[in-house]
Each structure stands twice: as C-alpha cells, then as structure tokens.
Amino acid sequence: MTWRSVVAVVLLCAGGGLCVVATLGVVVMRDWQDRVHYVGLSSIGAALIGISILVRESFSLIGDKALLTAVILLFAGPVLVHTTLRSGRIHALGDWRRDVDEQAER
Question: For residue 50, what are the domain limits?
Fold first, then answer.
C-alpha cells in the first residue's frame, strides 16, 4: 500500500464516521430545528469523502468532480440550514426577526 492509499482510507473512514454520527443525531433529536443542525456535520463528512477520492485519484476527471462536489456541499449546507430555519420561523411566528415576540407583547 502506498501512502496515498493509507491517507485515502483514513479520510474515507473519518468522513463515513461523521456521516453516521450525523444520521444518528437526526434520529435522536426530537425537534426539526435541532435535526437541521446535523446537515453541517454531514456536509463535512461528505467533503472528507470527496477529499479522499481526490487523494486517491489525484487531479483527474474523477478527482476534480469529487472536489467540486465537496466544495458545493460545503457551501450549500449552511445556506440550506439557514433558509430552512428562517422559513420555519416565518411559518411558526409570521416573521423571522428576533424581536417579533417582544413586539407582539406590547
């Protein structure tokens, strides 16, 4: 085994482990607002898997696609979480701002 294979296997196991932990977190959490926070953890796991493919295949067509997918997941995950939480707050309270509860009491 070469050093690239060893590093790729370590990154793949770390990424797979993070994805498993994120899945267990989604199963264990009770509220949808708590569950949505595990998207970030799973996107980091997917990025590690993509980097492991890049280490194994180098900068080729397969490696470049894995790197592009990892970057898209790293940037799209937080945007998806923020949008989901904001739309849930709008659905529950009618507005997304923090002080809407205080204005309703006045």
Answer: 3-75
